Amino acid sequence: MALESGTYINSLVATNPVATDGLAQADDHMRLIKATVLASFPNITGAMTATQAVLNGIDARMTALETAFATGTKMLFQQTTAPTGWTKDTSNNDKALRVVSGTVGSGGSAGFSSAFSSITPAGSISNTVAGSTASHAITVNEMPAHSHAITGTYKRDEGSGGGGSFPHGSARSTVTNISGFLDITASDTGGNAGHTHGVGTLAVSSTFSGTSIDLAVAYVDVIIATRN
Question: Which residues lie closer than 8 Å to 48 by C-beta, 6 or more apart?
Answer without folding.
Answer: none
